[in-house]
Amino acid sequence: MSQSYESLITDLMGRWPESRIEPSLVRIASVVELLGDPQRAYPVIHVTGTNGKTSTARMIESLLRAMGLRTGLYTSPHLIDPRERIIFDGEPISIERFTRTWEDIAPYVELVDKKSVADGGIPLSFFEVMTAMAFAAFADAPVDVAIIEVGMGGTWDATNVADGLVNVVTPIGLDHHEYLGDSIIEIASEKAGIITEGSVAILAAQDVEAAEILIERCAEVEAIIARQGVEFGVIERGVAVGGQLLALQGLHGRYDDVFLPLFGEHQAHNAAVALAATEAFIGNSELDAEIVREGFGTGTSPGRLEVLRRNPTIIVDAAHNPHGAKALAGAVDDSFEFSRLIGVIGMLEEKDATGILTALEPVLDQVVITSPRSPRALGAEDLADLAIEIFGEERVRCEVSLSAAIDTAITVAEEESMYGGVGVLITGSVVLVGDAKRILGDAR
C-alpha cells in the first residue's frame, strides 16, 4: 500500500533541514549514480545568486515553455506545499507523481543513508532528497530542458551534481554568513562553483569584488561570458498597470513592448538576465519577439510583491536580507502609490534584522512586529526592540501571533482609510510569507 502524501511529507521534513548544510556532494552524487545519473538525461540551465534566483528561473521557464519546449523547473524553498519546488510545464508536480517518484528512489536513498551513517556521516537531507526526486522526475517525464535553482551557495549545493549548459548568476549580496562566508569575495567564490567547463555564464550586474571572482572562474574553466550592462540589459522601463513595460537588449536582438506582470526595477533586471539565458540556450539567433512577449506576459513569481487582497491592499514579499529589502523598498516606492503603508514583519534569528528594518523604514509608516512559525524564528519581542530603535516607539506594535499581527495591521489600515490608498506589506521571511498566504488564502 502506498504511503499517503501527508505521511510522506512528514517523513521527508523530518530529515536534516535545508537550513543546515554539511559541505559534501558525496551523498547526493551517490544516490543519483545509483539512479543512473538522471540529471544528465536533459540539458540544464543552472541558476544561483543571492537575490532574484527564483524569479529569474521562473522567467526562463516561462520563456522556454512559450517556445513549445517541455520544461522542468526546480526551485526552493516552497511557500506552502513542497510540490511547489518541482514544476512541469508551469504546474506543480501532482501528488500521484510525487509519491510515485519517491517510491522509485526510496530504496536507493535508504542504501546511501545506511552507508553514510556507517561511515560516520548523516543521512541524506531534506533538500538532497528533494533534489534527487526532481532530477528523477524530470528524466522520467522526460523534459526537454530543466531549469535548476541552487538551494544555497553553489560549489557544495546538492544541485551541483548537474552540469549546466547555461549557468546564471543573479546579484550576489551578503546572506547565509554561517555557511558561505562573511564577505562578498567568499560568497561569490562559493557561487562561482556552478560555472562549468565550456558552458555559457550569464552574469547579472555585480559589485566589483563579486564580478572579479566570477570572471576569474569563467577564465579558469573557459566558459563564455555574457554580462549585464555590456552584452545585454534593460534599455527602457516604464511602470504600467499590473506591472511594467520594458525594452530589453538581448544577446542577439532588441525586444520592445515587453509587458512584465511583476513589480519593481529589480524584476526588470531579472527579466534581462532571463532573456539572455534563454537566448544562450536556444543558440545564436534572435528570438521571435511575440514569443518573448508571451513568455514574459504569462510569468509569475509567487511571494514576490504578490498582491493577495484588496480593500485594503495586502502585499506579501519574501525579502529576507538587506539587499532584498532594499530592492523591495524601491519597488514599493516605484510601483505603488500608497498614502500610508503598514508593515507586518517577522524574521529568522540568523538574519541581519537591523539591515532589513533600516532598508524598509523609509517606505513604512507603521510596523507590526511578529514572528514566523519556525524553530529558527527571531522572537517578536526581540525584533520589536530593534524596530523601536529604527522606527521610534510610536510607530511600532508587537503581536506574537501572525494572525493577530495581520488583523492589527488591517485594523490600522481601515482606521486610517481617511487618507486613502492605505496598504499592508507582509515581509521579512519566506516562512512568514507562506504562513500569511495560508491565513489569507489567494482571494484578490
Keywords:
444 residues, alpha/beta, 6-stranded mixed β-sheet, 15 helices, 18% strand
Give a brief rundown of this model.
The protein contains 15 helices and 17 strands. By secondary structure, the chain is α/β, with parallel strands linked by helices. A hairpin with a 2-residue loop joins strand 9 and strand 10.
Low-confidence stretches: none
Question: What is the count of helical runs?
Answer: 15
Q: In one word, what is the shape?
A: globular
- Number of distinct beta strands: 17
Note the beta-strand portion: 15-25%
SS-derived structural category: alpha/beta
- Report the span from N to C terminus: 40 Å
**Overall average residue pLDDT:** 93
User: Percentage of helical residues?
Assistant: 40-55%
In this structure, how is the largest beta sheet organized?
A: 8 strands, mixed
Radius of gyration of CA atoms, rounded to a whole number: 21 Å
> Spatial order of the strands in the main sheet?
4-3-2-5-1-6-7-8
Describe the structure.
Strands 4-3-2-5-1-6-7-8 form an eight-stranded mixed beta sheet, sandwiched between helices. A six-stranded mixed beta sheet has the order 12-13-17-14-15-16. Strands 9-10-11 form a three-stranded antiparallel beta sheet. The chain is built from 15 helices and 17 strands. The two termini are 40 Å apart. It has helices at 5-13, 26-34, 53-66, 95-118, 126-140, 177-180, 184-191, 208-221, 265-282, 289-297, 322-335, 353-360, 380-391, 402-415, 430-440, and strands at residues 44-48, 71-74, 86-88, 91-92, 145-149, 166-169, 200-203, 224-227, 233-240, 243-249, 254-260, 306-309, 313-317, 340-345, 366-369, 396-398, 422-427. Helix content is 41%, strand content 18%. Helix 12 links the parallel strand 14 and strand 15 (366-369). The chain has 444 residues and is an alpha/beta fold. The protein is globular, with a radius of gyration of 21 Å. Helix 2 runs parallel beside helix 5 and helix 11 runs parallel beside helix 12.
